[in-house]
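Illustration: Type II secretion system protein J.
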Amino acid sequence: MSKVKAFTILEMLINLTIMSIIMGLIYFAYASFVKQVINYQASIDEQNELTTSYVQLRTDFFNAERIVKSYKGFKVIAYNNKEIEYKITDKFLIRRQIEMLDTLPIKKIKISTDFNSITKEDLVTKMSIGTTLFDEPIEFIITKDYAPNFKLKL
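Result:
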């Protein structure tokens, strides 16, 4: 009778156990990598949304002829008489222009105004917005300087 060379059941079980441990480690490393990529993408999205909102607000202030404070917000009135309405809620600064609606999560907001005695309007001169980025509080300030001839209506 000739001997056939083969693996024993014990050798197969040891091999299967070692391979299972290696596959488990590979899966754990892959799952950890995917989780880090997802968290990184979420943080980049959060930063992009905040940056976009900040740039849009600065652009609105820069292009505005005047910014008039209202009951729960303010209106940005451009030189071509287009209006952009901002409303302030407990948690958001909401920007509405025609049919477009944007939101910026906020923690606090402080608006400084000057009363224009000629136009009888409260004109926004400075805005301080507190929000969070990566669970850290940040604050940004936007100012509006009005031309002297607008203040005096010459």
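Reading the tokens back as a structure: The longest strand covers residues 121-133.
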